[in-house]
Amino acid sequence: MALPPSEEVAPAALQFPQGFLWGVSTSAHQVEGGTRNQWSWWEERGNIRSGEACGLACDWWNRAEQDFDLAAQLGLNALRLSVEWSRIEPRPGEWDGGALERYRGMLSALRQRNLLPIVCLHHFTHPLWFEDAGAFTARGAPEVFERFVRRVLAELGDLCQMWVTFNEPNVYSGLGYVMGEFPPGRTGDLRGAILALSGMGAAHARAYRAIHELQPEAQVGFAHNYLVLEPARRLLPLDGWVAALQRKLFDDAFLQLLARGRLPFPFHLADGSFPDPVQGACDFVGLNVYSRMRVAFDLRFPGQLFGRVFVPHDVPQGDHGVQAPYGEAYPEAIVEAVEAAVPLGKPIYILENGVPDAQDRIRPWLLVNAIRQVHKLIAAGRDVRGYFHWTLTDNFEWTHGWRLRFGLFALDPETQRRHPRPSAALYSQIARGNSLPAEFIRQYSSPPG
Ligand code: FCB
Predict the structure, then answer these.
(1) Mean pLDDT over residues 145-173, rounded?
(2) How far apart are CA 184 and CA 240, in angstroms?
(3) Domain assignments of the chain as residue spans, ordered by start
(4) Residue 236 banded pLDDT, cuts 50, 70, 90
(5) pLDDT, tens digit, for every residue of 365-392?
(6) pLDDT score for 446
(7) Tens of pLDDT along 334-371?
(8) Residue 318 has pLDDT above 90, yes or no
(9) Statement: residue 47 has pLDDT above 80
(10) How far is the CA of 81 from the centre of ligand 1 (A)?
């Protein structure tokens, strides 16, 4: 029997390994409402570029369970959330039993719905007293963080075994100390950024050891943001040089800290020489992957290692951020990110991936093709064990406020009503079948024009 020419061979459904985690990711400040941390302080001083207020956010403090129902109805089997340090330890060494009780309620509710909880211990926010003391640039910070982590483990450890210490130390330090977009709002302070990065590395390592002491069977990792940074003009060596330098700091430094125990040259010269050994201190690597950006050599950007970072006009994109494009929607970024994490030799989870897209114009394409890349990696022998979409319902997107809508469900923050976007049903079908259907691959083979 003659086979049809290869381009006419219909794609087959792509089956995922048994036990693969299909989840969504969220973070406390973005969903709970009413949080009092360094971000609420930042907001009160008029620093949210969209001009909006976090307010009730998704009102999870009162009704997270309704959203857990939605996640369960989609057929997901995991959900990543974070606990808000400022609620749990409102003053140094003082613990709020009511807050811990509420988190117990949330974790129990997840387990009742067969949603495996993954708890992140620091997702960009912390108490103002910790910020005022210099946050992670301060010498004693790792010990202070460890004290908090021990308390969380003592109170919630029976309900969770998978822990993410930090969300995106590279984004936290880059946007807080170089770009001025996150508190403490510094611009061009590369030394501060490197100090914060190494301080978080040390705090991570202490937390890793403390968690294992209290819960030997725990799985402890971190969530690393990986951004594809490519030279704008391939033939211009200076563009290639600054793109490589930015990659070294943004994409590679934290992974190298874990793999080799120190930041790469020359950045280790500015680190805080925190004494905690960091090498090998993780059981899995979490990757948050969104975009591709281009980098052009530009003397006007010394704080960004002389690289101007931008998004070309003619690439697939979701909605525009408040002042600049959010980024190119680039499913292949997952491949580059996973390959960068492979040298650590640990299981990998895609802990965030998504696109801001109020109209759900490009999300179905992004979702299908990102998941397709994950399958390709698994087929090539990479140990990728889960995919978590960012996010379940629209939430308060940091400095972009309500302007960027990442939810599988649209949320009206006034009425707190949720409406599924078409992508919710698409993702549900994938998660329920533990496979990517062939018709999705065909239907979404190219990005919408
Ligand atoms: C990630 C953050 C998350 C959210 C998404 C869109 O970098 O971890 O809180 O802002 O981007």
Answers:
(1) 98
(2) 31
(3) 18-227+244-284+330-443
(4) very high
(5) 999 999 999 999 999 999 999 999 999 9
(6) 95
(7) 999 999 999 999 999 999 999 999 999 999 999 999 99
(8) yes
(9) yes
(10) 12
Put simply, whether the predicted model's pTM sits higher than 0.90 gets the answer yes
Residue 2 has pLDDT above 50, yes or no: no
**Residues sharing a CB contact under 8 Å with residue 283, sequence separation 6 or more, in sequence order:** 218, 219, 220, 221, 346, 347
One-letter-per-residue 3-state SS of the chain: CCCCCHHHCCCCCEECCCCCEEEEECCHHHHCCCCCCHHHHHHHCCCCCCCCCCCCCCCHHHHHHHHHHHHHHCCCCEEEEECCHHHHCCECCECCHHHHHHHHHHHHHHHHCCCEEEEEEECCCCCHHHHHCCHHHCCCHHHHHHHHHHHHHHHHHHHCCEEEEEECHHHHHHHHHCECCCCCCCECCHHHHHHHHHHHHHHHHHHHHHHHHHCCCCEEEEEEEEEEEEECCCCCHHHHHHHHHHHHHHHHHHHHHHHHCCCCCCHHHHCCCCCCCCCCCCCEEEEEEEEEEEEEECCCCHHHCCEEEECCCCCCECCECCCCECCEECCCHHHHHHHHHHHHCCCEEEEECCCCCCCCCCHHHHHHHHHHHHHHHHHCCCCEEEEEECCCECCCCHHHCCCCCCCCEEEECCCCEEEECHHHHHHHHHHHHCEECHHHHHHCCCCCC
Say which residue the tokens 């494009």 belong to. Answer: 325
Mutate to test the pocket of ligand 1, among 35, 319, 397 (most ligand atoms within 8 A of CB): 397
Calculate how far, in angstroms, residue 309's C-alpha sits from the geometric centre of ligand 1.
Answer: 18
Q: What is the CATH T-level fold of the domain 18-227+244-284+330-443, as seen in this structure?
A: TIM Barrel (3.20.20)
* 245, amino acid identity: L
Q: What is the pLDDT of residues 76-127, one digit of tens each?
A: 999 999 999 999 999 999 999 999 999 999 999 999 999 999 999 999 999 9
Site to probe by mutation for ligand 1, drawn from 164, 390, 392, 406 as the one with most ligand atoms within 8 Å of Cβ, is: 390
Q: Counting beta carbons within 10 angstroms of the beta carbon of residue 162, is it exposed (0 to 12), middle (13 to 18) or buried (19 or more)?
A: buried
